[in-house]
Amino acid sequence: MEITRDVVNQWLEQNRRGRDWLAEKCGVGIAAVGHWLNVKGSARPIPAEHQITISTLMDADLAAESEKHDENRLSVVFRDDDFSAVEQAAQIVSTPIKDFIVRSAVHAAKAAMQKAADEAGRERVRKLEAVEPEEDRPAARKDGTGRK
């Protein structure tokens, strides 16, 4: 990839880095970086030695991003009959099998978290009822639906 002013400006912006950071990494003053990356006026070409440094920094960012994505990667091994069932279900809803598996896992995770939250809420209510004196509780109606 050619290291141009536009490429470097975009890379810095995408990675939330400033010209001061780049100047430090290249061992130059911020004014030099400003001259390289200036869109108007006195833009100067980026010297070859600094293009190499910038290219190395960009490659390191790409490698780090790739590693981050690898951390989210998961391999799953199915028994043949289980895979067949998942494959058929994905076909029924016209969804690629990988997308179907991810969506199913996310749906199951959200359902489990909601169930845990509901159970925690019920537990809090039970604890409050255990502390609250009986006479302070609202009286139930004859039909059992709450207050009179």
Protein traits:
148 residues; elongated; mainly alpha; 2 domains; 6 helices; 434 Repressor (Amino-terminal Domain)
3D architecture notes:
The chain is an all-alpha fold and about 150 residues long. The chain folds into 2 domains: about 5-70, 434 Repressor (Amino-terminal Domain) (Orthogonal Bundle); about 80-135. The chain contains 6 helices and no strands. Helix 5 (about 80-90) packs across helix 6 (about 95-130). The longest helix is centred in the C-terminal third of the chain and has 35 residues, at about 95-130. The protein is elongated and about 85 Å long. About 5% of the residues are buried. The model has no long low-confidence stretch (mean pLDDT about 85).
Secondary structure elements and their pairing?
Blueprint (H helix, E strand, L loop, with lengths): L4 H10 L4 H8 L3 H8 L10 H24 L8 H13 L4 H35 L17
The main pleated sheet reads as: none
Helix/strand structural class: mainly alpha
Overall number of structural domains = 2
Number of strands: 0
The helical percent reads 55-70%
For this structure, the CATH topology of the largest domain is 434 Repressor (Amino-terminal Domain)
Q: In percent terms, what proportion of residues is strand?
A: under 5%
Helix and strand sequence:
HHHHHH
- Number of helical segments? 6
The second-level CATH architecture of the largest domain is Orthogonal Bundle
Query: Low-confidence parts lasting 5 or more residues at pLDDT below 50?
Result: none
